[in-house]
Design a protein that fits this description.
InterPro entries: ACC_Biotin_Carboxylase (IPR051602), ATP-grasp (IPR011761), BC-like_N (IPR005481), Biotin_carboxylation_dom (IPR011764), Biotin_COase_C (IPR005482), CPAse_ATP-bd (IPR005479), PreATP-grasp_dom_sf (IPR016185), Rudment_hybrid_motif (IPR011054). The chain is an alpha+beta fold. It folds into 3 domains: 100 residues, Rossmann fold (3-Layer(aba) Sandwich), CATH 3.40.50; 70 residues, ATP-grasp fold, A domain (Dna Ligase, domain 1), CATH 3.30.1490.20; 254 residues, ATP-grasp fold, B domain (D-amino Acid Aminotransferase, Chain A, domain 1). The protein has 16 helices and 20 strands. A hairpin with an 8-residue loop joins strand 6 and strand 7. Bound molecules: adenosine-5'-diphosphate (2 copies) and magnesium ion.
Length: 461
Amino acid sequence: MGITKLLIANRGEIALRIQRAARDLGIKTVQVHSEADTEMLAVKLADEAICIGPAPAAKSYLDIDAILKAARDSGADAIHPGYGFLSENAEFADAVVAAGLIFVGPSGDTIRMMGDKAAARASALAAGVPTVPGSEGIITDMAAAEALAGQIGFPVMIKAAAGGGGRGIRVAETAEEFRTLAPQASAEAKAAFGDGGIYIEKLIARARHVEVQIMGDGQDVVHFFDRECSLQRRRQKVWEEAPSAALDDTTREALCQSAVALAKSVNYLGAGTLEYLYDDATGAFYFIEMNTRIQVEHPVTEMITGHDLLAEMIRVAGGAPLSLRQSDIQRRGHAIEVRLNAEDPANNFMPFPGVVSGLRLPDGPGVRMDHMLYQGYAIPPFYDSLLGKLVVWADTREAALTRLGRALGELQVDGLPTTAPLFSALLGDAELRANHVHTKWLEPWLETHAHLIAQEKDKAA
Ligand code: ADP
Ligand code: ADP
Ligand code: MG
């Protein structure tokens, strides 16, 4: 087959990232956009740009018919969904294929099987991959679920099968809480994802979030090692590293092999990430979910392996076999990514769209920025607040931390607050530098270190 013209059904920094991979492969690009995004860098740089509707995502980036019409009108032969929006929507993947186009990702059936978190747990169990103790499939009988929660032991997590981005999750400490929270979680999931299915998992306290990047061509699957994403706020990642400094080589190998086994068991095609919780104290890891798309934090993996994950996912979508064997994928050094959001970290992370009135970007050895900024750009207020990611690489984690400090010192975004001062403040923390963190480490830290973040913000101003 092979792809000659790729339509990018996304916006912001990931739209640019996809565009660059396409251009590196000699593929033409069509950038769709909303009325609010006409000044977006990805629109300016694409070979063609097509407006598909008004600002609200439901009327543009989530409008399947409008996107397919743009593909027909432009003669695109493939669609890349990026992350978020329609990237894990099985109906969209099916509709793209039904229209005679290539979907850059797995089939609708694979998305249904792995994108539904309860179904993915069942696939993991079948492939012999350890999961968090919890319900088998979706909860249908509340009384039975409450009894099961008692058996597993409180606290338990109530999770939406269709959930993502940290939404649709509740923690129940007691049976009584469970009775009130379970119907709430179901209603919220129904409203947010159009699917009220929920399941339960034991809460693993003080766990780390580790994940494995894989790529499949429908026959073979390779892994690109692990990432650690334990620094989270509201269950959303804010800082990611590759590899996880918490894993020894034996555990890393077992973790990566379990991810390959699970992906192979579903003949996976495309880029995917298997997320796990890792318990330092026992050395145990538990599969929690699979993201059947490219992830925000993929650059840290590219930095330690030297491979272009976007290019490879476009190649395999076009029908090519994997260009890499497992032995071709080696890792070197350590990479760290921090998420630059248009939010004020000194003011409860209030979103703060505005006009970029001045801009100085970090550069030099081991520094990469995937971003959507340019001087004079007015950030539209309608979408996710991610402006870009600052990524650094060095031989060791310690050197990468030092380099991150250097790069943050060079970075200057005028006109709106960003999360950069948070990262400058974090770099001074001894626990973080020693990697003594877990998924609930950052939130209390933010409470007790608000003064440091405010100080860093003043220093940068
Ligand atoms: P990653 O590990 O790549 O950061 P996230 O789960 O944080 O993955 O999601 C990446 C982006 O996609 C975020 O902007 C998030 O808000 C969005 N997102 C994830 N899942 C959904 C979903 N089901 N519906 C809408 N947006 C989603
Ligand atoms: P999402 O689809 O929203 O990304 P995940 O299932 O990946 O949801 O969980 C998001 C985050 O919630 C994890 O990174 C972790 O911090 C926390 N979490 C999820 N499941 C558990 C669990 N069983 N115990 C403790 N924390 C959990
Ligand atoms: Mg997740």
